Protein 1
Amino acid sequence: MEVFMKRILFFIILGLVLAGCNFFSGGKDDYTELFDNIEDAGELRDSFYEAVDEKIDDDGQSLTFAADLFMVSTADLSASLYLAVVELYLVTPKLSTVDIEKKGDTYTFSDEDENEQVKVKFDQKTNSYSLEVSKDGTVTLVSEMTKLGKNHFAYQIYTDSNEKKCVYQMLLMGEDGKLSVDEEATKIPSTIYKAKSVPKSFATSGTRVYILDKGEFSFEGSLSEQKTVTNFTIVSGLKQQYELNEEISLTGIKIRITYSDGSTEEIYVTSSMVVGTVPDTSSTGTKTLKLKYGGIQKSFTFEVVEDGENGNGENGNGENGEETASKKLQQSFLSFSGTFASGTPSFLGSLANAAFSESDPQKLLFYEEFSNASFSLWSNITLLLEGISVITAHEAGTLDALFPDPANNYGKTAYVTYNEETQTFAIGYWNTKGLYTYWFEQEISYDEATDSLRAVAKCGVDEEQLIRGYTEYKKIVDGNYAANLYFPVDENDDEGLYTNYEFRFTQTEGVISQNLWADPPATLYRTTADLSDYGKQGDKTMTLVDGTLTFVDRLTCQSEIFWKSFMGEDGEYEGSLEQSFLQRMADAAEASGGWFDESLFTLTYSALNDYLWLLADYEKKVLDLNQFDKFTFTMENDSKTIITEEYGEETTFVFRYKSDKISQQLSLIVTFSDGAKMVAELVRNGSRFYIQLAQGLPNEYDTYRAAYHDNNNMYCAYSFLKKFVSIYGESLEGYAETGDYVHKIENGVYSFVEK
């Protein structure tokens, strides 16, 4: 279950970054204490989630908790983003991208594009807030919190989406707490805004209740069931009439999906849902659009007419007057981040939903890596968000209020400059995170003509400078972006190798590629390149289409794969082909009254087992190169050489591997500083296997050789202080049939020969 928690918590972290960020406190309406309490409540929620995660030992409860936590965290993220809009307004009302009306303790603003209205109420006296989102006059989201005492909070969320109403209630009491999930809600719950207490039934009467009482976990309610698609229909975006040659926008068509449990969901159509091709409008007549989703295919018709009058044309009215570079940057980033993470739906949310649904460890791990690169505390996008807030504060004249005491922060003062020629903001600011005060420097370049951005973020403590990462994106068309995130493998070295994520996405689909130990990618800033295949190639690639994830890992070590075919998975001796072969010889020797030491011939305990991890980790690009004082890698034909140095001792590893339809050959020779060598070799020729293990000084090797033909014909031979001869690429006729000591099974008959 822990793996689920790690992937879910980034939503909560993001919400706290936005909702609890101290940048926004101290404005014209000071809610500093309230925002501090919101942050405290968030930390208690995180602790509660982690504690429940650790206590659950029932698989059904674990999966249900992961699904419930994803839903409540997603709703919490949406609420946090709306709170962030109000917080930004409190500092920079003139630069806010929305008009906010204040009456008493209520802040109201609208999103005309989504036909949404948002009301936010703050009460400093009771340390509570209430947030209400309405769409088309219907309340779709309510989020409320109130402080009941020290480390004692009540928190609830109500969602109404596509005829399904849910209520999430939490009661946090220090290390204890309750989470109630009601999937059968019929109305908005009673408000807890300004409440100094809550009824005993609060957070106890849902469909499912997760309880921590004095550290002991209990669960009440029913487990969730898998749901399937039973029907879908188009609810908007497809007109009944189109004019000749009028473009049909798939991205604007929305369908409502009905599931087997009666719930519904609305999503936008993607190209992958189209059966065949989108009908063209180059001729008049009835046209049919065929869509397929969740295994169900349906047809929808429309008319193409000459000089049609469908009355659906829209003219957008922009703001009067020239916008500042800061506001253009803000608007671009909000559009990008809305598509990527904060919209409903969003690419990251769609990705998370698919990853959790499939519960594939590889996919979940890759999702976690990508989400952490995006939204962890030090992530590229989180720092970009903070940088933009500093810029807006500067233009509003409130920068000094945000950073009032630079003398105690290494003598640095916050600054913002703008180079109109390069369209680049240079900013510096400080922030306290944990025990340390960090200094941040960023360069953010935004080009309006191509709607593309490039940002680099650095930070430092005292005079130490650390490079945190680079962020780039470019809008291809509305709702469709290409982006990359990359950062140095060694965060102190901007001249070395990088971890790079390239991705192209819409709200519901996309592709991500990860490249490790890579050069910086080609820039997206102001690019005119064709980006249709962007993000499709990398060391690892994840693709989301029609709610389904595919994952490709191109980083493999063929030597390791061959080794495991003989040794067993993870090098385990038990149950391996090697054990079967050597155990057969040992049993035959014992039955004849003799002896046989199988451990001398096992690759499990050989240099191959000890050192193959070095090559495997290098080829999978997970090796920590910093553990060595010196590390070099060279490759020539089928030979790969690694030289390491630790504590003044140099070791050389020579790996050789080749294969064809009939045979596979693997050789490892390790040479130490004093000239001593260790050798491990494995050869497969058809169904026969050959092993050689050797160690010693040149021309003075103890060698152990084994040949496995079948269960009735096998050989094991010892030779002492002999010249080593590799079996790699050599003829193996009569191999292991002679030596100082030879164990044989020929035609099922065991014999032992001592020279």
Protein 2
Amino acid sequence: MITVKLMGGIGNQLFQYAFGRSISSDLHTELLFDLSHYDSDYSKSLRHDNYALKHFKIENIEFYKYSDELIDESSEISIYKEDFFNEITGFPLFRNFSAIQLPAYFEGYWQSEKYFIHNEKIIRENFQFKKSLSGKNKLIAKDILDHDSVAMHIRRGDYLDYTKFGVCTEDYYQKSISFIEKQVKNPKFFIFSDDPEWVKKNIHIPHPTYHVTNNSVENGHKDLQLMSLCKNFIIANSTFSWWGSWLSNNKNKIITIPKPWFIYRDPNLRHIDYGKRYFPINNDHREDFNSSNLVLFRLKPENYSLDLASIHNIDLTTERNRLNVNVLGNDSKIYLREIKKSNDDNNIIMKLSLKTKFSDIFQLYYTTNQSSTYNDKNCIYFHYHENEDFEIFIYLSKEILLKNIMIVPSSIKGSELCIKSLEIREINNSKKLYSKLYNKICTFRKFLS
């Protein structure tokens, strides 16, 4: 017997179910699901965080509500968190089933079709919607089926409060639209968003569009059902639209997908799929960064003492115009010197290039006028992995004070990494506003022609 913990919204639950159904089939064992998450105060505080698999043709689904005490103390149940499971089974090759000891309990998000693609037929049969669309949704469905439809998902809402996720950029959507235009002759865009007014003001589409706004959060499965009828997709960094595209039966569908998926580069999301149906589009603010010439800070390794206010538990050395960081203790910190903007209403983008030896987490702490202490809320972080050479663009809103930037490059004593470059540029918001207006006029003219 195996038990899989369900948690999160409909997209997360679909991944968790697909993982559980697939592995139970592989192991020829009974499958149960743990629903205890939905009894928590946290889950009850979120409108979208409720059990949603009831809307699909899943038969003979069984539940069990485990307590944390039972799972921790039981000697009979083998506990598999996502990291550990991936390690012992050799994921993503994922064939060492002999390492799994039954009965087993699985907890994770399992966000990759590699966990279940070998049982795709079973999953697709289970993920048919129970009820046909009716009323206005039925009319929208007909419109979708009558056109070369493109589903575009823009998720803002709760993502604005979770900086580790990162909202997909305007540039990502505009580039995705341009990409679709070259592949689809007469596209019609069906837009699914929790912030339709923002979309209308900021995303410019020179083609017919329809904003799907008639379904409430509680009826999100109907939006998913409509989305799955579309022929092509511009998805957000959201499991909701990932599944909307996966459930589509169009064999020739085109799917643009944001890269990176999340700014915090969760190691368990390294296998979010970039296959032949998926076309990755940059989603990292590099266009805004490169278009700005307002350089506020540029780390100069040969004179780093002028750029840094102080360091703690870190040894810094320079080599070939790079700054080598050797962490001497668990409480390692680098404080940047005070940085001043030309306009307090402008936003900031930091470009950071790293070369790593080990896997760990890079943390950037800041303060605001409303919060003068370093804490988890005033922090942007991302994972880096062993022997990586990469760059990342970090968006800092205008509320962030640049006089108190603190960097924690690693939490592990003895860790080493190389900062190849660190640069901060100011983004002229008034210039961006003018550019948006110009693009909107061009879009309108193109649409009329």
Protein 3
Amino acid sequence: MADIRERTETDQPAAGHDGGGEPSTAGRRRRRPFLIAVGIVVAVVVYALAFEHTQVDLTQISSETRRASLERILRALAHPDLVTYDTREETIEVEIAIPCGPEVTPHPDLVIEPSCGDPGESVTITGTGFEPREFVELRFVPDTEFDITLRLASVNADSDGRFQVDVVLPDRPSERAQTIRAVTQEPIGTWRNRVEVFTDANENGVEDDPILGEDGLHIFEVAGRVDVPAVALINPAGETTDFVTAGESFEAVSGVARGQVAIPITEERPDTGLRITGIEASGGNLSVTIEGPPGFDMSNWRASAYDGVTGEPAGTTFISDTIRLSPRISETARITFDKILETVFLALVATTAGLLVAVPLSFIAARNIMRDISVTVTNLVLILIAVPVGAALGVLASRAARDLVAPFSDDALALVGVLVVAVALAYGIARMALPTVEDHVPTRAERVRRAVLLVVAGALALVGLLVLALLFQSAGTAARSVLGWFGFVGSFVADLGEIFDVAFVLIAALAGAGVLAQLASKLGYAIRRRTPRSVVGVLDVVMGAAAGALWAVLVGQVIDWFYRIDEFRTVVLIPAVVGAVVGVLVALRGMQRGEVRIGLSIYYAARTVFNTLRSIEPLVMAIVFVVWVGAGPFAGSLALALHTAAALAKLYSEQVESISPGPIEAVRATGANRLQTIIYSVVPQIVPPYISFTMYRWDINVRMSTILGFVGGGGIGSILQQNINLLNYRAAAVQMLAIAIVVATMDWASSRLRERYV
């Protein structure tokens, strides 16, 4: 009992503490107000610094000038320039002296008070006699030899057609009077009678034969011969308001237009408010188009056709409908449509290119795939030496292939023959090197022979790829002119050929590096199997020094290319020595452990590259590519493709890292190699999220491409920047609306695709 009491007393926690030496709940509660107060103070200080650095100034909200500018911009954005009408510009000009001195001529409808002033002074402009609520733009026309105007203000007339506005005189002094111009735009357009018209077949002023008019005012039959069709537009009072011809002018010998000379429709005519703007004749049928002010009532108006030979009336049509303005899609809307398509396809090309690069790279950036990859020191140093040597041999092989194919490059049939021969030989040699049935263990000589045959087959395949690229270019160029509207398909084929042609050197270099690295790996295993360990150790150290020196010199050459050092000791000798020392140290450490775990090294290197590329904004990349390939969507596609490849590779690799390990262990238990394990256990788990990430990235690229246009990267951003710089916010609103519609549509489409397939 004494022991129990003693232990109980000993186990009692000290004051202010729980068991185990942790602070008691009561102590934490006493300190909580203090910690909260400290947190509040820290938050206040942090946000105070944030406001200071972001220059938050809410007093600007109350600025009348800024508020007026904001209202103007918001109203312009609320009226996107989607639909337009044909307009006729009318101007009123009044003189002003800057500074005072020259005499000025006043205008009754545009009064300036005072009529002169110094630059920077304000004057009041009063306008009268305008249309109710008509939009008026005031421009200053300086006294200069150049045809330029400066915008002063924009204003809407009131219900009485009157306005008054204060403007600041520009800094354009002159010894002569200058001009302030009030510009209005009156909408005009083509009006079409779409209801009922009547013909006056007997020329007696009676409406006969109701006919449905659909095209133009009406297509009606005319009697006699109409070699030079002409039409007179006649008002209800019987007066000829417009008399025009589609060919040579002539004089009407009868009818309402008797004695009047028809004016060719291409000539400038006095403004009558309502006039004929188009005449088409075919087989005795006339199609007449009329232009006039909106809402004009054409009831009881007539259109009379005249024979171009006799000058006599050939038929009359009564018009019994009110003409209406026919709006049309604005030029801004058409340009925006073209540019938004360009933006979507720019993002599509960039996403596709990034996808093709990111998918294979995502596996080398996945920790669970790369962490258990290790090689012997002998294999590692041999591979490090073989990779740059193989790449150099691949480049030389590509040049030899070009020289071989060059004599046939201008003859399509010869190229086809070379392609067939190269593919057939490559296939046959590959079948010889890789027999389907193995009845014995291959000897060393047979293995060497197979390796040589595989190298030859690969070289022939590269030749075939080069020939295919040339055929694509020639076929696409020929099809471009033959396909007509579908000529872009031929351009696409030609572009594919150019891509293969440009990438041929890179493909050859990678192929050479891969083949020589594989041979080096097999050589390394043979050396370790047949050579004493002490000799292998010496070889590892020597080859490690050589591999380190080789790669260090390559890095030095890259640095020399960027910084133009041009000093042998700095870019060759010192890097070679340092690289050799590092290579020896790596070889010695690898000899101690038996193997070198290169998987994690490749993983960290790949992650570093991806993070670096992702940290560079596509806007900066676009500037570089604009310099390289010129301004346009191609530069934007390259910039987005590079950033997309890095971003998708990271997302893909993280998805690979999060897969279930069970299928991997099950496939490995069957004896599958690494490639088979990836194909049968990893790929089925990552396809759905890969699709989701790709669609999401396409959505992002569409939004990013709008910014790339600001630096010449093509897409809708280019015209958006242009309109913003020109303060044309109505046009900018169209581009913003198009972007919003496209992004919303793509979001809906991607969600449906994810719902269906992911």
